[in-house]
């Protein structure tokens, strides 16, 4: 069934567990996330990023409606989240499309401009029952930026600044920069567990780990145990999907029916989803 992100995150936080949010690019991603959640017997968050909306021609309705339909038809509790929204226009388009949450990403702006823009997004969301996540610090690695940027201590989230940011914006959850980086295809990120602990003690809302594809299982487990709640995974699904499709097509140069390679590609993503859900269930 389609449930709300707020209830999944609150339940995970109360139970000392994590809840995973997986990025949807194609319908096969949504189907694989639902199947992986059913296989693991766990809830999950289906998230569509602003970049994925752009890929679908900038029109939110088709991919959002299809993803919501997959969630409604599933036996697993699944919620719909709009991810890394930089455009205020797209934020407003989320209303009425099945989204119970949005990550409003003003992390490229200065601190003051980030607070002002995010506060407005929170007022807008809360008037409609939409849960708002925001980012302070910079996870990095988006849009082809060099992933190593996020490993520099200067871009990490400062606990005292995070407390003021949550107080001044009213956000429901905070994405923090603690050593992970977006779009990693190997799992070599080293998290700053001391910083995660300090943020957890200081910040009153659930913390979100972005760029979790590059984080080893043991580090994810340790981060969840220290209080990281929403665990965002995107690239790992694409690595599985493309790897399986590439292997099929390399071995078979005659097939033209896309279902022939989309079946193993989707199944590879399902396995990746189920494996992540087992890691974060504690
Ligand atoms: O918001 C989405 C996530 O941060 C995904 O990051 O593709 O590096 O796993 P990833
Ligand atoms: Zn992210």
From TrEMBL:
Family matches, as InterPro entries: Aldolase_TIM, Class_II_FBP_aldolase, FBA_II
Cofactors, names only: Zn(2+)
Record SUPFAM superfamilies: Aldolase
Pfam families named in the record: F_bP_aldolase
This protein's name: Class II fructose-bisphosphate aldolase
Organism: Streptomyces niveus (Streptomyces spheroides)
